[in-house]
Structure formats: structure tokens, C-alpha cells
Amino acid sequence: MKSQFGYESTKIKSIDVNWVINAYDKKCSVDVSKYFSSKRYLDLYRCSGTGYEYWDVDESGVGDEEFYKKISTSWPRYYKERRWEYSLASEYITKTDRVLEIGCGRGYFLKSIEGMCADAVGLEFNSSAISNKVTSFHIFDKKVEGLSCDNNFDIIFCFQVLEHLPDVNSFIIKCLSLLDSGGLLVLSTPNSKYKEHRKFRDCFDMPPHHVGRFNRSVYNNMSEVFDLTLVDVVEQRVDSVLSSDLNCGVPLFSKYFNKLMYFVNRFLFFYMFKIPGHSMLAVYRK
Q1: Which of 101, 105, 130, 268 sits between 20 and 30 A of 251, alpha carbons compared?
Q2: Is the peptide bond prior to 208 cis by the omega test (within 30 degrees of 0)?
Q3: What's the confidence (pLDDT) of residue 259?
């Protein structure tokens, strides 16, 4: 089998569909059985040229608007007000930039950059999220393919979008057609090196939610595929924090003990071991 990037692919994993269906039901009470039709197994392939991993599903196996309405209702804070990558990404914005965010949800990132750029627009296909938008910038109910190729954006942001798409190649080509020469494409996705993803323990990292998997090596290889300059790749790190209700047995000192353990864990996991966290951010220049 050939990947969407034109390289040969190898099957590296198969997972029983019934396990996936039960996992979604247990995690968020959403029935995903209709997205698998007669499939017994989900097969995961790896592209030999990029290292990109993708589940072998067609359009019917990808989450639709109904799916995202259900999952955003049943899963608390699905559309997050803050993401760790927002502050890093906003550092690339200048006052004269025209910004596009694809898959902007309710517009939390757009709201955070109001006053930082010349103009910004968002794209989102969840009509409920648009109806409850939090930003003054316009959000349109359309896919990126619906925009004209005027090459008039200085920065395009896609936070936690690529992993949902069955055709990443066409999507990035379209984004680049909308990006001015010298402009930036800023992407964030889950990291396949994160422990829960590496061990295939999180159903949200499987169809119909996620259909593709990324890591630092994939982003490096994609810069060559699309003839882009890779400006930076930043991995989120595990920040292990003991639960707030931890009690060391002496109530007077429990608060201080928790604080001490927070900094101990932060040092061990963040600075010493540098264990990959859930997500990562990549910045390309056209």
C-alpha cells in the first residue's frame, strides 16, 4: 500500500474494532459503531518516507459533525480555553499579520490574540461551537478547501487538526496555497511518543477521532516533502503533579508537602527525564 505522500507503507498494528467501540463507550458514552461498518480490525500503517502513521479508514470511518457534537458535549472541556501551545504560537505574530486558524472551535486562541495582529479569521465545521464563539473575529462554517487561493495570510495556525484528517498531504498543500511567501505554518498535534499513545491505551487517539499519528521525526521529514524550512519543533513534557487531595497524615503540613512534591516531580520529569507529553508544536516557513 502507498501512503498519501507517495511512499510505500507497512502495516504495523491491528486492533479489534470491538475493543475500540467499548473503549469509547467507557470513556465518554459515545457509540462509534456506525463508523466501522463491517470492519473487524483497525489496521495501522507507517509511511516509509515520512514515518507518518495512519489508520486504514475511508471517509465513513472519520468523525463527522454529529460525532464532534456528541463528544464535545459528553467530554468536559473538549474545546479547551487554554492549550499549552497557545502562548508559544502567539510569539510568532506581529502587528501587521493577517492570521487564519483552521479548526478553531469556539475561538479561544483567536480571542487571545485580539489586538496582536492586523486581522484574523477562523474556520470551524461544528456549528454549535460557532454559535457559542468567544472571539470578536469572524468564524466561518467551511473547510479550508472552500477558501480562494489569494496567498494573503501571513500565518496559518492548525491546533490539534491534522490528526483528524484522512488526507494530510492535500490539506497542507491547500494551506500553503493560502500562505504568503515567507509566511508561517504553525501546527500542533498529539505526539505518538507519549506513553498512552505509544501503548495504544487511549481510544481518542484512534478512529473516528484521530486517524493519523505524528512525532518529531515525521515533522522533520515533512519539511523535505513540502520544501519548507522547519523553524522549530517543541514537545510538550510530562509534568507529573500529585493530586491536590494528597494527605501526608499531618493536615497542617499537607499543603506544603504537596507543593514540595510538585517541584520534585517537575524537576524529575520535566528537566531530568524529559518524558514526552501529550502534544507537540511545529513551525514551518514557506
Answers
A1: 268
A2: yes
A3: 58
- The whole-angstrom separation of Cα 232 and Cα 12 is 29
pLDDT digits (tens, 9 = 90+) for 169-182: 999 999 999 999 99
Domain 83-191+224-237+277-285 class, CATH top level: alpha beta
pTM, rounded to two decimals: 0.85
pLDDT of residue 145: 83
- Residue 210 contacts residue 164 (beta carbons within 8 Å): yes
Mean pLDDT in the chain?
Answer: 87
What is the three-state SS of the chain?
CECCCCCEEEEEEEEEHHHHHHHHHHHHCCCCHHHCCCCCEEEEEEECCCCCEEECCCHHHCCCHHHHHHHHHHCCCCCCCCCHHHHHHHCCCCCCCEEEEECCCCCHHHHHCCCCCCEEEEECCCHHHHHCCCCCCEEECCCHHHCCCCCCEEEEEEECCHHHCCCHHHHHHHHHHCEEEEEEEEEEEEECCCHHHHCCCCHHHCCCCCCEEECHHHHHHHHHHCCCEEEEEEEEECCCCCCCCCCCCCHHHHHHHHHHHHHHHHHHHHHHHCCEEEEEEEEEEC
Domain spans, the chain: 83-191+224-237+277-285
Q: CA–CA separation, 109 vs 237, rounded Å?
A: 21
Angle value at C-alpha 272, between 269 and 274, nearest 5 degrees: 60
For residue 252, what pLDDT band results from cuts at 50, 70 and 90?
very low
Instruction: Name the grid cell of 137.
Output: 473575529
Q: What is the pLDDT of residues 143-155, one digit of tens each?
A: 888 887 666 899 9
